[in-house]
Write a structure and sequence with these properties.
The protein is built from 17 helices and 19 strands. It has 507 residues and is of the alpha+beta class. Among the domains are: 104 residues, no CATH class; 99 residues, PDZ domain (Pdz3 Domain, Roll); 139 residues, Alpha-Beta Complex (2-enoyl-CoA Hydratase, Chain A, domain 1). The termini are far apart.
Length: 507
């Protein structure tokens, strides 16, 4: 039976909440892993964990039965092959970590793969050449420098005879991110000037840099531990200053709504609650504002609930629901009913009950029961909403009175790492014609969502397993957003972006 559209949209919002739950389920104490004492031991451990990561993924990933993605099984096999090709060269913990990263990156999906969790007894390596860089537009630039002869604003052209673009593809994107996503150049490009101990990326020796209007210079790189004092510049280079969740007025007629996270901690949840109250109380002022800025800098995703609430407060709940219903009118949610996934989803009933999210209990119980039924009958997927009983528990009567229309210009500041629930937010904000995207080109998602985690046999890492796949999602696999108002300058501070918005308003 086709689900009611309103029911589906509410579940697409609610289901994103599960992204924050795996840490709860894994809170039980784990026995400290025993580290190998020889190079051969590290190589064997890496091989065993790659084989396990492959097997766990093959048993539980929706892509194994997804007819929309017939190449997934081969891609997973290639990921294992890519990692195993490096195993014989592993001699220590850093090589082990790099091999796990190679496996994960080969899947080209932030919601799948694996990651290493090395204990504190293995010191993190963070070396730099005395300066840090950022990717802006189509080039790598020096953001901050303590190295003589290197100054902020210089462009990095090449190192050791290879162009920067080729180096980033070969050295960075082999172990992190996706080269075909513009947002990932923003997010990961700076790693070219970071030595994290990866033995497959020996430190570069010389680089050529150029200052606008000057001749290129060659600089010998002196790699050294990056001082803690430099971290403020590393953080500022990434997304600029970080504002707390909330509404502020950067000047009397420019409203600034900061949403640096959609995975709020307890204190941030209170800030969101305060934000919702502020939006309600100040809506008359917002209607008369010169512009409203929705600031997504620093946002790493989480739950789409928070952005939907903000959108509803600005544009009106009925308008948001109506447009979202239309947007997702053909979308279906297919849960992959493996034994592990089914047990996990069924366990969420007690988790949500403990957290007091009682309104979600009928839904999660129906999904768990549907997955169990599919598992018992040998069906790969449970298609959410196929049972009318689950639909009936979710549809609530609408009593909300509509708000006056919002016609104030709205600017959405996107950072390059914007993905997952951050992209869900952009999906909603761009449903309205008075919205303009600004900042950087976003990242992109696959259609596989709602992850859980399974510990690797060594205890030194975890496998990332998506539980479901979206079918007919409007934003297709790999689709990203490009800003109408790009900001490729080094300075991503609130003041710099405010000036960008003010300049655009004058045009």
């Amino acid at each position: 039976m086709r689900r009611a559209i309103k029911t589906l949209v509410s579940r697409l919002t609610a289901v994103a909440l599960l992204c924050a739950l795996p840490s709860v389920l894994l809170a039980s104490e784990q026995q400290a892993p025993v580290l190998p004492t020889t190079a051969q031991g590290w190589a064997e451990l890496a091989r065993q964990d790659i084989e396990a990561a492959y097997q766990i993924t093959a048993e539980n990933h929706p892509g194994m039965a997804d007819q929309q993605n017939p190449g997934f099984q081969q891609q997973l096999l290639q990921a294992k092959t890519n990692a195993l090709l490096l195993v014989t060269q592993v001699t220590d913990a850093y090589g082990y970590e790099a091999v796990i990263e190679r496996f994960s990156t080969s899947l080209q999906d932030g919601h799948a793969g694996a990651y290493a969790q090395l204990p504190d007894s293995v010191p993190a390596i963070r070396r730099w050449p005395g300066f840090n860089t950022v990717w802006r537009g189509d080039a790598l630039w020096v953001y901050y420098s303590e190295q003589a002869g290197v100054v902020a604003g210089m462009q990095l052209l090449s190192c050791d005879g290879k162009a920067v673009e080729s180096l980033i593809k070969d050295r960075v994107f082999a172990f992190a991110g996706q080269a075909d996503q513009p947002g990932h150049w923003w997010s990961y490009g700076s790693r070219l000037m970071l030595d994290d101990g990866n033995p497959f990326n020996p430190p570069l020796k010389q680089c050529q840099l150029v200052k606008p209007g000057a001749e290129a210079v060659t600089v010998t790189l002196n790699w050294q531990p990056r001082p803690e004092s430099a971290m403020q510049h590393v953080k500022a280079a990434y997304n600029g200053d970080k504002l707390p969740v909330g509404l502020s007025w950067q000047q009397k007629d420019i409203a600034w709504i900061a949403m640096p996270t959609f995975s709020p901690e307890a204190d941030e949840i209170k800030l969101y609650e305060s934000l919702f109250s502020s939006l309600e109380q100040q809506r008359a002022k917002l209607l008369q504002a010169k512009a409203i800025v929705l600031d997504l800098r620093h946002n790493q995703g989480g739950s789409s609930y928070w952005s939907v609430q903000v959108a509803s407060a600005l544009w009106g709940k009925k308008r948001v629901e109506s447009l979202r219903n239309a947007l997702f009118s053909n979308t279906e949610v297919w849960w992959f009913a493996s034994p592990g996934n089914t047990a996990y989803v069924k366990s969420l009933y007690d988790v949500l009950k403990t957290q007091g999210q009682t309104d979600m209990l009928p839904w999660i119980q129906a999904v768990g029961a549907g997955m169990q039924k599919s598992l018992d009958s040998g069906n790969a997927f449970y298609v959410e909403g196929d049972d009318s009983e689950a639909d009936a528990t979710s549809v609530q009567p609408e009593t909300t009175q509509e708000l006056p229309p919002l016609q104030t210009p709205v600017y959405v500041i996107m950072p390059g790492q914007c993905a997952s629930a951050c992209l869900d937010a952009v999906d909603v904000f761009t449903l309205f014609e008075n919205t303009k995207l600004a900042g950087a080109t976003s990242s992109a998602d696959s259609t596989y969502m709602d992850v859980r985690f399974q510990i690797l046999p060594s205890g030194l890492g975890q496998v990332i397993i998506p539980n479901k796949v979206y079918v007919n999602r409007p934003r297709v696999n790999g689709q990203y957003y490009t800003p109408a108002l790009a900001h490729n300058e080094l300075d991503w501070s609130t003041q710099a972006l405010l000036e960008k918005v003010l300049s655009d308003l004058k045009d």
